[in-house]
Amino acid sequence: MRPGRGKSRPRSKERPDHAEAQPGVVMTVDRGRFTLELDDGTVMYAIKARELGRKGIVVGDRVEVVGDVSGDTDTQGRIVRRSARTSTLRRTADDSDPVERVVVANATQLAVVTSTIDPEPRTGLIDRALVAALDAGITPMLVLTKTDLKPADELLALYGPLDLPVFTITRKKVPAALAEALVGESTVLVGHSGVGKSTLVNNLVPSAERVTGIVNAVTGRGRHTSTNVVALHLPAGGTIIDTPGIRSFGLAHVDVDRVINAFPDLAALTSGCPRSCSHDEPDCALNDLGDAGPLVAVRIDSLRRLIRSRSTTVEEDS
Question: What 3 state SS string does 100-116 have?
Answer without folding.
Answer: EEEEEECCCEEEEEEEC
